[in-house]
Amino acid sequence: MNGNAVYEPPAIPTSWRIALPHTTAAVPVARALVRTALAEREHSADCDTAELLTAELVANAVEHTSGATPIELVLRLLPVGFQVEVHDADPEPPRDLTRPNLDLPDPWQEHGRGLLLIRSLSSSCGHRPTESGKAVWFRLPGQRRPV
Fold this sequence. Notes:
alpha+beta, 3 helices, five-stranded antiparallel beta sheet, 147 residues, 5 strands, globular
């Protein structure tokens, strides 16, 4: 051995990538994963908002994309924020995510508020193409616990 032995603690993950089924059963699983990630790392991002917006992204991916290809959930604890991405196989960008729709949602309709919630409650949001489709994301402010 050359030099002193040094103990290096295992790396603490600051990002997770999880495949979810292309069904509505993915929504509560995604919410639980967000809640667990924020709690385990004592991140200060608003957990209720993170769960709600994640549920909207996952539900949109399930409802507006076809096929049995899994949806991928990517969580990132950032030095000054928390980012959630949902990847799906459809390359078509989400309608009106970054360009606000000036029409108010119909109060009698069950759908039509998800992207409005994401735009309104996140610090930033967007979408980007991926090799296999697209990723739709949002960020919330907050700080992770120092390691």
